[in-house]
Amino acid sequence: MTEKRQLAKLIKRVQKGDSEAFGKIYDGYYDSVYAYVLHQVGQQADAEDITAGVFLDALERIDGFSWRNAGFEAWLFRIARNDVLDYFRWHRRRFRDISLDGTEKPPLPARSEDPAEAACNREYLMQAIRNLSEEQQQVILLKLVADLSNKQIGEVLLKNEGAIKALRYRALVSLKRVFDEGEERQDD
């Protein structure tokens, strides 16, 4: 039986009130939803709360889920994206230092071969991603963190696959430019 069929059976069971079936869905998607949320909010406790809310929202809305509109992953990540946006709306003053318009320059990554280099480079990358447009951020995070296809990302963002490819390309060009500039600044 294919994964999609198994998932469809689980969803039908959940729609009939089977909480054990929802537990399997939760177990199957928790890690990717949590990682996606965490990369956006940056706070573990907040990410845990938001992720729990995503699954609560999904459970409350699962009766309205239909395969006609989008795949389940896209539907679930659309809920996650909306919950993250709600979080930022309510907590705007806590995050006023995070620029989403690309005007901030991320700090330079350290050059070393020790284990701390990976953490520093990851923070540098996340700061660079924060400087992309909001749509570009979503495309990159949904691709890298949630490992969604361009089609699924389009379903989450309500855009066609071509628009997602263009957004992803522009985001990658912007990230490359930031890293190239960082290399040039370090060489000086």
Which characteristics define this entry?
188 residues, 8 helices
List the helices and strands and how they pair.
Layout: H1 3-15, H2 19-41, H3 44-61, H4 72-90, H5 116-130, H6 134-144, H7 150-157, H8 161-187
Textual characterization of the structure:
The chain has 188 residues and is an all-alpha fold. Helix content is 71%, strand content 0%. The protein contains 8 helices and no strands. The radius of gyration is 18 Å and the shape is globular.
Q: Averaging pLDDT over every residue, what do you get?
A: 79
Order of helices and strands: HHHHHHHH
Biggest sheet record: none
Which range does the strand content fall in?
under 5%
Shape: globular
